Amino acid sequence: MKSVWPFRHVGLKILALGFAVLLWMVVSGEATVERGLSVPLELQDFPADLELQTKPPSTVDLRVRGGSGTLSRLAPVDIVAVLDLRGATAGQRLFHLTPDQVRVPFGVEIAQITPTTIALVFEKSGTKRVPVVPAIDGKPAPGFIVGKITSDPETVEIIGPESSVKRAAAALTESFSVAGARERVRGSVTVGMLDSSLRLKTFRSAMVEVQILPAPLERTVRGLPVHWRNLAPNLTAQFVPARVDVTARGSREDLNRIGADDLSAYVDVSGIGIGEYSLAVHVDSVREAGVTQIEPSMVTVRITRDKN
What we know:
RNA Polymerase Alpha Subunit, Chain A, domain 2; 53% strand; 9-stranded mixed sheet; 5-stranded mixed sheet
């Protein structure tokens, strides 16, 4: 049997004893104080098959006791309250928060916790696949309409409280603009849920494609007078022919609202002097209708000096 020599390393033992005495003197010499703190509440061991129906508090209030020097050195991250959710089941559940569930540094004691009981409501977790519905923003160019809208992927899997999952009809995308478009528009957009209690099983984006088609109906306004624009001072202009027929495309509602006063046919004669020219006719369209044909598209323009 090996004998124990009590005086072995006696110097180190005396030094350790001295440090212990010194620490005791320092601690015992400090005034004991209390301080109020708001500390983060951490949820631990959350059941995988449950969802929270109520929002838990993000912090709890504590009264802590300890030496004045020790408390003065406390940082916000030094204390954390931990709520153990292991064993939770669906329904309303009460959890008691005790000093044993608060992590504190050495020398700090928990004097009070507020609240001491936290009520949480749990619901069974559910999943299902829902279609992706692109959110289209803006309108195509006049005379065009939105055709078929497709999304890749067409569906996504969502997760959340069972009751919310059952009510969910679709996942939405961020706005996808087709403003002024005359042909197919394609782009990538983020997919998400408006209900904050629901989430996608896998975060992802979708490739959205929107067909832009010519509007299905046309209407012709006949005998529209031709005007000039940007004619130089002291000059006058005559057109042959002086009237044109204009065909516009749009929806039935838009075309029914269009009259002769809503369309303006003109020839731009900026920078042109006295003489005879063959120039193109332009038309300002209105509302959602687009001009598809001007007949004739060219007119003879005779520019002479104004005799008035």
